[in-house]
């Protein structure tokens, strides 16, 4: 007696087909699962046995049960195959005839036969539609996430008993309907607002430029100067997620098992501690999962105390800062995750923090200062577009009752600049100025003679690399967009040079 059911496995953000093949024959009672199943799948034998018995069905004793998860050469993990395996066993042992060739079935079983949440439901639903399957049987708690994908009939399943009763025609499961207004965008109530930040006009201008073109920024200053506050205020001036961007981010959080709502509508803000491991930052594991840099995709990755991160950890940022992706290679295979984020890093100028503070004397020795500065490599600093000094706020500004410009006003300018970029890059894979490649730089970053002369002098005197030169052009393009200018002019280039590190 043999039965096949459709399921799938997530590999990164994509899915691969998994056919659950169940075979039951007379013999000594035995239950084997083959097909490169990991421990969590092997343990499902006990869950399935209890779930079948507690759902009121007979477990086939004195039978040999064999489950093959095909293809057999592809590694599989997780508990999402519990429901199709149990369904196959009950269907064969009770003679239940089913027509499920157009259906995808996933779900974890509880010991009482209930069906529990599984991760990666959004990629699974997208894959089902791609394969042409019409029906998707999912845990009740995951129905809303699966319903984000149009063109599928989503059947929310609360228990194994309910599913079998439906297939026998004894009970009806009403296909889940996405509620009206599920994707309405409501502007979030940000805790931080630019209006409440005293002083730091230069740093706030840098954040506005960073938000407009999705540029990376490094803030350096003494303790208490407001670096962390400025970084945490950045999300309040970022433009709203587009529908495509929201789908990208939601898929990442779904695969990572962190999706708490049906759809992510606010740009992510991730702030890992400096003790985070390399795997936590870039992703990893035996079957790789997204790390902090992928969870910050289309949002902000804030690294406070930047030099305190292990050297090998921050050096792993080189590829995503350049390419917008991270490739993770393991013995099980190689996976690529998106990682297009705005890096906001903050640091003290020295170990004691007062090297650039005119009101405090620095207690660090020259050797300590040199070691501290060498913690972040030159090639990594070269990939950061804006380098900003954040000085201590003067007492007069701290006590001022005047409010600065609000985040809402700044966000209007940022959105206008982003709109210009959207029109400019229509039909291309590039979305923002920071993503421009050499072809786009050549086409959209043309300079007049005065600007060329200024850049020539800057490259010579500041010893800038070719990468730094291109990043200045991208930054100048963003500043021009903020000013509503179609052409890059001398003041735009001059302002961009102010944000460049003095060594490249």
Structural class: alpha/beta
Sheet with most strands: 5 strands, parallel
Helix content: 25-40%
Instruction: Specify the oligomeric state.
Output: single chain
Strand order within the widest sheet? 11-14-17-10-18
The CATH superfamily of the largest domain turns out to be P-loop containing nucleotide triphosphate hydrolases
Question: What is the level 1 CATH name of the largest domain?
Answer: Alpha Beta
SS element count, helices: 21
Distance between the termini: 70 Å
Poorly predicted ranges:
none
Global mean pLDDT: 91
CATH architecture of the largest domain: 3-Layer(aba) Sandwich
Tell me the β content.
15-25%
CATH topology (fold) name of the largest domain: Rossmann fold
Keywords:
504 residues; alpha/beta; Ribosomal Protein S5, domain 2; Rossmann fold; Helicase, Ruva Protein, domain 3; five-stranded parallel sheet; four-stranded mixed sheet; 21 helices; 18 strands; elongated
Structural overview:
The chain is α/β, with parallel strands linked by helices and 504 residues long. The protein folds into three domains: 2-168, Ribosomal Protein S5, domain 2 (2-Layer Sandwich); 194-423, Rossmann fold (3-Layer(aba) Sandwich); 436-504, Helicase, Ruva Protein, domain 3 (Orthogonal Bundle), CATH 1.10.8. It contains 21 helices and 18 strands. The chain has a five-stranded parallel sheet with strand order 11-14-17-10-18. Strand 15 (325-330) and strand 16 form a beta hairpin. Helix 7 packs parallel to helix 17. The longest helix is centred in the last third of the chain and has 18 residues, at 407-424.
């Amino acid at each position: 007696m043999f039965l096949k059911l459709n399921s799938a496995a997530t590999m990164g953000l994509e899915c691969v087909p998994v056919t659950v093949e169940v075979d039951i024959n007379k013999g000594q009672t035995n239950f084997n699962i083959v097909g490169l199943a990991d421990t969590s799948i092997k343990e499902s034998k006990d869950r399935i046995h209890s779930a079948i018995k507690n759902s009121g069905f007979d477990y086939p004793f004195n039978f040999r049960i064999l489950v093959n998860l095909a293809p057999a050469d592809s590694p599989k993990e997780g508990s999402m195959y519990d429901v199709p395996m149990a369904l196959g066993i009950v269907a064969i042992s009770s003679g239940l005839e089913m027509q499920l060739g157009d259906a995808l079935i996933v779900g974890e079983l509880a010991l009482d036969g209930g069906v529990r949440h599984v991760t990666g439901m959004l990629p699974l639903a997208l894959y089902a539609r791609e394969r042409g399957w019409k029906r998707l049987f999912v845990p009740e708690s995951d129905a809303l996430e699966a319903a984000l994908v149009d063109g599928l009939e989503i059947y929310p399943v609360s228990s194994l008993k309910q599913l079998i009763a439906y297939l026998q025609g004894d009970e009806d499961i009403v296909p889940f309907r996405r509620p009206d207004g599920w994707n309405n965008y409501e502007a979030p109530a940000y805790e931080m607002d630019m209006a409440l930040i005293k002083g730091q006009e230069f740093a706030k201008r840098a954040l506005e430029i960073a938000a407009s073109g999705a540029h990376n920024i490094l803030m350096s200053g003494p303790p208490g100067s407001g670096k962390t506050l400025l970084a945490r205020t950045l999300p309040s001036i970022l433009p709203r997620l587009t529908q495509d961007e929201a789908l990208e981010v939601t898929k990442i959080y779904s695969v990572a098992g962190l999706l708490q709502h049906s759809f992510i509508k606010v740009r992510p803000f991730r702030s890992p501690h400096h003790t985070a491991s390399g795997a936590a930052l870039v992703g990893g594991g035996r079957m790789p999962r997204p790390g902090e840099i992928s969870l910050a995709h289309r949002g902000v990755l804030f690294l406070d105390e930047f030099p305190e991160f292990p050297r090998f950890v921050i050096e792993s940022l080189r590829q995503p800062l350049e390419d917008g992706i991270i490739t993770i290679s393991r013995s099980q295979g190689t996976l690529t995750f998106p990682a297009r984020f705005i890096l906001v890093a903050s640091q003290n100028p020295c170990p004691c923090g007062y090297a650039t503070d005119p009101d405090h004397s620095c207690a660090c020795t020259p050797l300590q200062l040199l070691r501290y500065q060498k913690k972040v490599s030159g090639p990594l600093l070269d990939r950061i577009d804006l380098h900003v000094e954040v000085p201590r706020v003067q007492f007069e500004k701290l006590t001022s009752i005047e409010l600065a410009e609000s985040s809402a006003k700044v966000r209007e300018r940022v959105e206008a600049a982003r709109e210009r970029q959207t029109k400019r890059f229509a039909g291309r894979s590039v979305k923002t100025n920071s993503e421009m490649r050499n072809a786009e730089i050549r086409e959209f970053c043309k300079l007049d003679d005065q600007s060329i002369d200024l850049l020539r002098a800057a490259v010579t005197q500041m010893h800038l690399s070719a990468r730094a030169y291109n990043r200045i052009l991208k930054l100048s393009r963003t500043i021009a967009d903020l000013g509503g200018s179609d052409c890059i002019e001398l003041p735009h280039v001059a302002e961009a040079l102010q944000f460049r590190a003095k060594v490249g």
